[in-house]
Design brief:
single chain; nine-stranded mixed β-sheet; 27 strands; 35 helices; five-stranded mixed β-sheet
């Protein structure tokens, strides 16, 4: 169940009369528990030590009790030994009048009326495996509103299928935006009167819903008509109380879809929610899923946390503003200068979605401005920060409309907070008709036409707040002469997942550097467009959330030298973290934050979730003071043994055998002497058994005596002869051997996969005997010392390859020339090698103790056996002490040391 489905189930439960007998089962079911699970929990074998209570291990301990006993039952649950023993997250007691609950991880207790519980359901989302951020818990309303609007949207499309077509989708989305505004406006007294919009529909429309659309259409007409013109427009007298809104929100068509009884009921239900609780920086990103069929399955999950957004905005410019505010103290002139600076700042998000970044930036700047006003004794002063200084581009029309609404709502809420209700309402209407969010493709629109240098007219693609006519209009920036900050979270898409249109747009963005468009992530196009932009506006700084892959492997070595050559540097960065909505339903993508600007001598900062590191420069791999890129090397940089490709058969499968094939030949000694194990990446990781025919040239005559081998060679010859590749055809005359042979061990092979899952804590590496042939899906060190396995299996090595080799989709992509040959190793003494040999043996023995478990089983993040983990820890300790005499504190320190060694070694060479 997603969050919206849970909200609907919870709301339905708490609208029913309370029944202490049926409530526990219904409560568990509303959070996604299956009937069989509920039945087991309610059985006599319940884990609870309190009569009548239910305990779900690692989840909740709760009880429905008689009226008036909530507090005593709550205390029993909290002090229960079973609660602690079973590691329950929540306790809850209710009597149908009151609910008392607590998140035992440390969040504040919850006490509310029984009927009010649905407004707090977000507090309990972890019960469904949805790990939430605090903003969701504090704003369950946004999920409830999204849920209701989604129901209405789907119901309206049932009776108005033509409104769901591509030609009319914009009108449907525009209608939903109008409704959202009306619900918010009537609850905040922008539209004055007790829930005037909802009450008017309830009173004036027929209960059978036959004229609901006509009533709403007349209200929309009134909201778009000045008071003096209403007689001419022949508006009904009952619309007189509705104000003139302007801004284009209600301009143009006022057609409204037909309403069924159910749809009318949904509409009234939505109107009865308390829309003063709307949070524009959460609600906007959630509601965009309503109009998108592909995203609707994760409805209520589209939430970008404020802390994540601030990882971009704080170091980009907000920290600087706060630093100046602190330094200003109570100096009136310095505070005035700071306020003037703030009012001129322009924030531009060229992939703005529903406006999260712009809304947060606006609210944070209003907070700083208000503190200035307080210190200057000007409390309640009207803001000088104009919404039109917050520009955005969004590809989809509905999120673009929601972005405008979100900013309007944010402005009103800030006025309400800092100036008071009367002033907020008085200055709210009519809306400004200028459109500062552009609906279009950010990679096809000239950014300078929307956000030009100061003192230049601005061309935008619309002349009012919500519609887009053919003619372009100009909107001046208020308070000219300020700084421009570009920010956002552009779409990612690796090269394999890009559409033809995306590839074309990427090529257009990197027009000066065609090579960069071939294999790089789609998000890199926004970096390219920024480079174009700063040619005209040199002082502009930018910060983007990007895939971490643009700071790894080939992309890092291609993109960043171009950026640095144009005089741009990485001024701050946040190292890899998961950018996700709600963890269990959206695993999220691993991202970094990159802050860009013209080269200067200021201190650069690298952020992690725990630390901030200052340095003179930040390199392509987000390593301090390491601007060099790592290039492929044909031979090892250190004294490790060469790693080679495996062997490629190109045989149409005719030289390969399954386990069943091998068994069927077990008594055929002539044939079995030519059968070897065949190991590739999947075989290594998943423990699969495959075999191959391996025949040396001098053994061909003997091997040909086997009828089985002769037949396989005949089929192989035919297959190669039909190949479109000339190099394969050339080997049709030698069907007994592989086409490409890199090597074969005399004693043992250390085998590493070319690709493996990012979930692995250590790189899979195996040791095999001389009767094993390595496939081209893997690399091999033939007859090398065992201490090489120790290096490959180390945390140091996986950290290195993760950064310099990069990934294929979400899998690590390993390379002998880039991952192994470049791996810097200090000079090893004989004792060092002996210690590493022993550590490698311990790892192999620990694995062997869990036979027949595969490496996939053993190295699953949640299943790594303790003895194997201990063996890896010992291996890491031995190796890391060789590097620095102690264990490294974290991966950042590991990388810094490795890059330091790499720089020294390559400089010498």
């Amino acid at each position: 169940m997603n969050a919206v489905e849970i909200e609907e189930a919870v709301s339905e439960l708490f609208e029913q009369p309370f029944d202490a007998v049926t409530f526990p089962g219904a409560f568990l079911e509303s959070f996604g528990n299956k009937p069989t699970v509920i039945k087991r929990l309610q059985s006599t074998a319940s884990l609870s030590d309190i009569e009548g209570a239910i305990l779900q291990r690692n989840n909740i301990h709760f009880k429905a009790c008689p009226e008036g006993q909530v507090s005593s039952v709550f205390n029993q649950l909290k002090n229960s030994p079973a609660t602690a023993k079973n590691k329950t997250k929540f306790i809850l007691a209710t009597d149908g009048v009151t609910v008392e609950a607590e998140d035992l991880s440390g969040d504040a207790p919850l006490v509310c009326d029984y009927k009010d519980f649905p407004n707090h359901f977000g507090y309990f989302l972890p019960l469904a495996g949805i790990e939430t951020v605090k903003q969701i818990r504090d704003s369950s309303f946004d999920i409830r509103a999204t849920s209701r609007l989604n129901r209405l949207y789907i119901e309206l499309l049932k009776d108005n299928p033509e409104w769901g077509t591509a030609d009319n989708r914009h009108e449907m989305n525009h209608f939903m935006a109008r409704l959202i505004f009306c619900f918010f406006a009537e609850d905040t007294d922008i539209i004055r009167g007790e829930r005037l919009f909802t009450t008017t529909i309830e009173q004036m429309s027929e209960r059978d819903s036959s004229n609901t659309n006509e009533i709403i259409s007349e209200i929309f007409r009134a909201l778009n008509t000045k008071t003096a013109d209403r007689v001419i427009e022949k508006l009904p007298r009952w619309t007189e109380q509705f104000p003139y809104v302007n801004g284009g929100l209600f301009a143009g068509k006022v057609d409204v879809p037909r309403f069924s009884k159910i749809a009318r009921s949904y509409l009234l239900h939505i109107g009865n929610l308390d829309w003063t609780k709307i949070n524009p920086d959460i609600f906007g990103s959630m509601i965009q899923a309503v109009a998108d069929e592909e995203e609707r399955g994760a409805l209520g999950m589209h939430y970008t946390s404020v802390p994540n957004i601030l990882k971009v905005l704080n170091p980009l410019f907000l920290d600087d503003l706060r630093g100046q505010l602190e330094a200003a103290g109570d100096n009136a002139r310095t505070l005035l200068n700071l306020r003037k600076r703030i009012t001129k700042i322009r924030v531009f998000d060229p992939a703005c979605g529903s406006g999260n970044f712009l809304v947060i930036a606006y609210k944070q700047m209003r907070e700083i401005e208000n503190e200035i006003n307080v210190r200057r004794g000007e409390i309640g002063r009207k803001t000088d920060i104009p919404l039109t200084n917050f520009r955005g581009i969004e590809l989809r029309d509905f999120p673009a409309e929601i972005a405008r609404l979100a900013l309007i709502i944010a402005e009103y809420q800030c006025d309400l907070l800092y100036r008071g209700q009367k002033e907020a309402i008085d200055d709210f209407l009519p809306l400004d008709s200028q459109n500062w969010i552009t609906h279009g493709n950010a990679l096809k629109i000239d950014w300078l036409s929307l956000c030009p240098p100061t003192g230049t007219n601005v061309q935008v693609l619309a002349d009012d707040l919500f519609d887009t006519p053919v003619d372009q209009a100009q909107i001046e920036f208020a308070n000219e002469g300020g700084e421009t900050f570009i920010c956002g979270n552009p779409p990612y898409k690796g090269s394999k997942g890009q559409t033809a249109a995306m590839k074309s747009e990427l090529a257009m963005a990197w027009g000066k550097y065609p090579k960069l468009a071939k294999n790089n992530d789609y998000v890199s196009a926004w970096i390219a467009r920024y480079l174009d932009y700063v040619e005209s506006v040199p002082d502009t700084r930018a910060a983007f959330v990007t895939t971490n892959s643009i700071c790894q492997g080939q992309q890092a070595s291609e993109i960043w030298p171009v950026v640095f050559d144009q005089g741009i540097e990485i001024q701050f960065a946040h190292t890899s973290f998961k950018w996700s909505n709600l963890a269990s339903h959206n695993a999220g993508v691993t991202v970094v934050v990159i802050g860009l600007g013209a080269k200067n001598k200021s201190t650069k900062k690298i952020f992690t979730d725990e630390t901030v590191k200052e340095c003179a420069s930040i390199g392509p791999y987000l390593i301090p003071n390491m601007l060099k890129v790592v290039d492929k090397l044909p031979t090892p940089i250190s004294h490790q043994i060469s790693m080679l490709f495996g062997n490629m058969p190109r045989d149409g499968g005719n030289l390969l055998l399954t386990e069943d094939d091998r068994r069927s030949l077990i008594d055929d000694q002539l044939t079995t002497r030519f059968i070897k194990k065949f190991i590739g990446a999947e075989d290594l990781i998943n423990g699969k058994l495959r075999y191959c025919l391996w025949i040396e040239d001098e053994e061909l005559e003997e091997a040909s005596k086997s009828s089985f081998i002769s037949e396989r060679m005949r089929l192989c010859k035919e297959n190669r002869a039909l190949s479109p590749a000339q190099s394969t055809q050339d080997f049709a005359s030698r069907p007994h051997r592989f086409v490409q042979i890199a090597g074969k061990a005399e004693k043992m092979s250390i085998i590493s996969p070319r690709h493996f899952s990012e979930n692995r804590e250590y790189m899979p590496v195996g040791l095999f005997d001389e009767n094993t042939i390595v496939s081209d899906a893997a690399f091999a060190i033939y007859d090398g010392p065992l201490w090489c396995l120790s290096l490959i299996a180390s945390k140091l090595h996986i950290v290195w390859l993760a950064n310099v080799c990069g990934k294929l989709k979400t899998d690590y992509r390993y390379s002998n020339t880039l991952g192994w040959n470049t791996f810097p190793i200090p000079q090893l003494t004989e004792k060092n090698k002996m210690d590493l040999n022993r550590a490698a043996e311990d790892i192999l023995l620990a694995r062997e103790s869990h036979f027949p478990d595969s490496m996939a089983d053993l190295y699953h993040p949640e299943n790594l056996p303790q003895n194997l983990r201990d063996a890896h820890d010992r291996n890491d300790e031995v190796l890391e002490r060789i590097y620095i005499g102690r264990r490294f504190r974290n991966d950042t320190e590991r990388l810094e040391k490795l890059f330091e060694l790499y720089t020294k070694m390559t400089s010498k060479k």
